[in-house]
Specification:
The structure is a homotrimer.
Chain A: H1 4-25, H2 29-33, E1 36-43, E2 52-53, H3 55-66, E3 69-85, E4 88-101, E5 108-121, E6 124-138, E7 146-147
Parallel strand pairs in A: 1-6, 6-7
Antiparallel strand pairs in A: 1-2, 3-4, 4-5, 5-6
């Protein structure tokens, strides 16, 4: 049976994932940066850019990427938390992200997964490592992504 | 750490949100009304109509709106609960709602958020205030919505 | 108020639903079969085939169906758990499943619900009965489905 601490941490981890999505949809790069550890490593795939290290880089890249759109909506589900220690967890989730490009082009749709390592940091949790794994896209440029590993 | 009471209330609040969605998809205006307090205030944006007060009005408007469609599917995720008191919470969630219009027109897609105030009512929770905030739509008429507040 | 045992079981049941979706997206029929009881009954609707009994049949049908696609993404939300006993629950959830057909045809979209009976099995939970109820589809062949029961 899960402990109260574990269930509480699962809820906090879900809140963090949702805060990240919310900041994306509000075009809030500062809020996005605050979801990551100072020395985080984030890999959104080679089409977006090389893996980025550090909260400041994550902020800059989010600011750059979000201004491509007039609107986005990040629908996050299928959250699975596996604790490696009491203060560190591997967290997988599934994302359907709708994007309306500023160019007026047809909407972009992203069907993907976040494969994260999260760590307890003071009173809360932060994302220490993130990989975006992509099942498929609609409308996006023909970028190279990290695959989900389908057989 | 969250208490057992808080985690239990979070689960009950999620159940209420899901019951609302289920009643939408089943075209059950009575069930929808039962999710709200007697004196609720609901604002689905100026394109849908002026803010509505009271459970009976909510029921009537749901009945009116749902008969526009042959089918809908409300996919709710990103639930975030902030307790203002032990018996009152602000609850945000993200909605992808698919609609098939009765007219035979192309499907309508809604990417939105519920911004709710929920209150403990007897054994359960009810929606006391709701605002529908819209990130974007596909297929819908050019209605005016409440915005999510993207920068 | 929910007990710690109930909240722990709810988390385990959500994990099971997510594991199923993950195995679908990874094209892992063995993993799918492992989500079901040995004597499970699964009904995906007459268009997919007659109700199937047993884990081995479930595995075979998943293997057959998943090879229709180059990619899928199963977005599961709106999980509602009702315990019939401490070891048996009725579980409803809402699915948006995106499919990219191997044929190169336009993407298939499924808006549906899982109506499951789950049972405690040793340390975890397994799906004993499943019905797929369909709100609507886009792109799919004109198969007959089990309806969600909209009024």
């Amino acid at each position: 049976m899960a402990s109260l601490q574990e269930l509480s941490d699962r809820a906090a981890i879900a809140d963090l994932l949702h805060a990240y999505c919310r900041c994306c949809d509000l075009n809030d790069p500062d809020g996005i940066a605050a979801c990551f550890t100072e020395d985080c490593v984030a890999d959104y795939g080679p089409g977006v850019g090389p893996p980025a290290s550090g909260r400041a880089t994550r902020r800059a890249e989010a600011a750059r990427d979000l201004q491509l759109f007039d609107a986005t909506s990040h629908h996050l589900s299928n959250i699975v938390v596996e604790f490696e220690t009491a203060d560190r967890a591997r967290v997988q989730s599934v994302l359907y992200a709708w994007h309306r490009p500023r160019t007026g082009d047809a909407d972009w749709h992203l069907h993907a997964q976040y494969d994260d390592v999260m760590v307890r940091a003071g009173a809360g949790w932060l994302i220490a490592e993130r990989r975006l794994l992509v099942a498929g896209t609609v409308g996006f440029p023909d970028w190279e992504w990290l695959p989900i590993g389908r057989a």
